[in-house]
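Hi F.,

I've been meaning to write this up properly since the lab meeting, where we talked about keeping a consistent format for the predictions we share between groups. The idea is simple: the sequence comes first, exactly as it goes in, then the structure tokens exactly as they come out, then a line or two of notes. No screenshots and no reformatting. I'm using this chain as the first example so we have something concrete to point to.
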Amino acid sequence: MEYVIGLDIGTTSTKTVLYDEAGKVRGYSNDLYNLYQDTPDMAEEDPEEIFSAIISGLSKVIEKADLKPGELKGVSYSCAMHSLICLDENYKPLTRAITWADNRAVQYADELKNNGIGMELYKKTGVPVHPMTPLTKIMWIRNERPEIYKKTRYFVGIKEYVNYKLFGTLKEDYSIANATALFNIFNMDWDDQAMSVAGVTRDQLPELVDTTYQFQGMNERYANMIGIDKDIPFVIGASDGPLANLGVDAIKPGVVAVTIGTSGAVRVVSDKPRIDPKARVFCYYLAKDMWVIGGPVNNGGIVFRWIRDQICLPEKVTAEEMNLDAYDLLTKIASSIPAGSDGLIFLPFLGGERAPIWDADARGTFFGLTRQHTRANMIRAALEGIVYNLYTVMLALSEVVGEPTKIQATGGFARSELWRQMLADVFEQDVNIPESVEGTALGAAVLGMYSLKMIDSLYDVDKFVGVTNTHKPNPENYKAYRELVPIYIRLSRALQPEYKNIATFQRQSENNHDDERK
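Output, unedited:
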């Protein structure tokens, strides 16, 4: 038997999944780490905590699997996009990993939007202007942290840092590079204008390679810690969004992948780069002749976590006392409320928003509250608000690539029957849930299999992806959603002029609190 590991470096954890040659899961580890949010708009991770999680996950899976020599053919990466780490001349981090969720560069994103340069860059990079991008993060560091900027020799992401530690070389795949907003999708190289705007030079960025590139010759210390031969190939892989499409077999024309994890996204594959005249969707590289067009949202499962921890603390305590999963209990409570939450609408913009409004100052809103509404209504409205927002991304995407022919859904939400049905009802289409809910890790593994010549084509993924659930729209439910979704859309647009005002007030208030604490 031959095996490959899909290594998925995510926002809150790294998932290590061992697959056999038939795509069946034979080992699994999920290793968590902290997200540091000490100040307004901050969202950072410790690179060493992530590296330790990777070593731990690999070693646990390898030890438990007890593979024979030669059975493990390779390891292949997926990685969250948009992270930035500043390294000094000795490759030591000067910063933590600044994640996609960090909004401190909002001023510089606004400047690029207002002066027209942002649209110029979007047309070349395929990345809408937003503080998530390393381009704007570097602008922020250059202006707000000049002492770090002056010491920085290399600007990298978390995957590049991990591979430098393991293999002693700085390489960046086209897919991760694409998401930096520093990469030109038409000439497949770092973009001169984008580098000039950010204030970086070519020699401060890693060498670019394709997503099938293989590392070999691991540092022996780490190979021994993991328990593998140092010459096992590690395939550099791609970014998590495109690989989620691959992992749920959404790479054929018209097949849409909807993902809800900590964040979320709606994506479809094209055979060439495509640009949206309204700059609402991204265009990211997956592999040769495979470009993923779509829109990411900041507010997926992280909103449900906020509901659990801030709104529903009594239910959380009850779940702990009953030895139940709190999310399962909250979902059961939400199921008791009819579709539409009795007219309660939630705009889920707790962490700003990316697609389709691309406004880092966006804020969450409950709209339509009455004395009759309960916490149960608020739970369901929050879940529905996440799906409403994904649907608005689908509307934008349809203008660029056409109407979807099929929807494949994945991510942690796929474990919830209520959420799956909600997706079918709001989108008014059948929703297929592949057997593997860890679609991103499977996508990484399949890309690795292709690089390692274990399969002939990425389209062979259809051999590995089964469907365990197909949810059909419920006419009673989508009748309610047809009335509420237009209100949601109008409301989100009507509030946009005020987002910046309230966000500015919040930042000033938080800074005043910081001064008082000092």
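Notes:
The first helix runs from residue 47 to 65.
The radius of gyration is 22 Å.

If this format works for you, I'll send the rest the same way.

G.
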